[in-house]
């Protein structure tokens, strides 16, 4: 199995200051990896480094075959096509329908064939159980439904890894469990690696995976 994410002795910054030193992290095809830790310990900075929002300060880093130290600005969209990202606050475009949200992503990642786009949108909506919601506006959906659409958006380009930053943080426990089952299904059935930031340790008991903890300016597997 190949690595989809690889850090060796990597120093992680929050854009200004180093917040985590000497990260050693390997995520392989099909892995389910959690990053846990208190607020302010650098979890989100690690995520932002993976998606090339923050530059890697020192050490080695590779994501989906891209060397983060050598990554040029024009290559960042190519890297992000290989990733799916799910945020706590959904980050849907509120001025357009579910279908238009997904179409926007496809167009911005190079899709041009109308028929192919329609087919792919239908596929991902069915995969997350939202096939009847294509023409709804985001504000017409519950929080759990919006997060399912966000996951549909994340899997549009069949990513090698899904990065999920507190994906259940704004949801009640029953809705959150549905989202976690959905993510676990994608992980198991499609072999898509998942890296999830969470502060909720009970998730890990229910859906076991490898666990890294950020504390004292380090990130180590526990």
Notes on the protein architecture:
This protein is an alpha/beta fold. Helices cover 34% and strands 27% of the residues. A 6-stranded mixed sheet has the order 6-7-8-3-9-10, sandwiched between helices. The protein has a 4-stranded antiparallel sheet with strand order 2-1-4-5, with helices on one face. A hairpin with a 2-residue loop joins strand 4 and strand 5. Helix 4 (114-127) packs across helix 5 (143-154) and helix 5 packs parallel to helix 6. The mean pLDDT is 94.
Quick rundown:
The protein is of the alpha/beta class. The chain has helices at 43-50, 76-81, 98-108, 114-127, 143-154, 173-190, 201-206, and strands at 3-13, 18-28, 32-37, 58-63, 66-67, 83-86, 161-165, 193-197, 210-215, 218-221.
- How would you sum up the global shape? globular
**Strand order, largest beta sheet:** 6-7-8-3-9-10
What's the count of strands?
Answer: 10
Low-confidence stretches: none
**Which assembly state applies to the chains in this document?**
single chain
Give the overall average pLDDT. Answer: 94
Fraction of residues in β-strands? 25-35%
Q: Describe the biggest sheet? A: 6 strands, mixed
Rg calc: 17 Å
């Amino acid at each position: 199995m190949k690595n989809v994410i690889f850090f060796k002795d990597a120093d992680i910054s929050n854009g200004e200051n180093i917040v985590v030193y000497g990260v050693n992290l390997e995520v392989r095809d099909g892995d389910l990896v959690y990053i846990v830790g208190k607020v302010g310990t650098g979890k989100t900075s690690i995520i932002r480094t993976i998606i090339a929002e923050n530059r890697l300060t020192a050490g080695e880093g590779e994501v989906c075959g891209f060397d983060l130290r050598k990554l040029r600005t024009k290559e960042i969209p190519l890297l992000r096509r290989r990733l799916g990202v799910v945020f706590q606050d959904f980050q849907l475009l509120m001025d357009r329908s579910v279908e238009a949200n997904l179409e926007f992503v496809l167009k911005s990642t190079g899709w041009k064939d109308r028929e192919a786009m329609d087919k792919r949108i239908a596929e991902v909506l069915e995969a997350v159980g939202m096939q009847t919601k294509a023409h709804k506006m985001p504000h017409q959906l519950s929080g759990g439904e919006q997060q399912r659409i966000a996951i549909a958006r994340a899997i549009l380009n069949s990513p090698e890894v899904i990065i999920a930053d507190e994906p259940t943080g704004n949801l009640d426990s029953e809705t959150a469990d549905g989202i976690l089952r959905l993510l676990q299904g994608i992980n198991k059935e499609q072999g898509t690696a998942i890296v999830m930031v969470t502060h909720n340790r009970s998730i890990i008991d229910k859906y076991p995976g490898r666990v890294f903890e950020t504390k004292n300016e380090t990130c180590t597997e526990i």
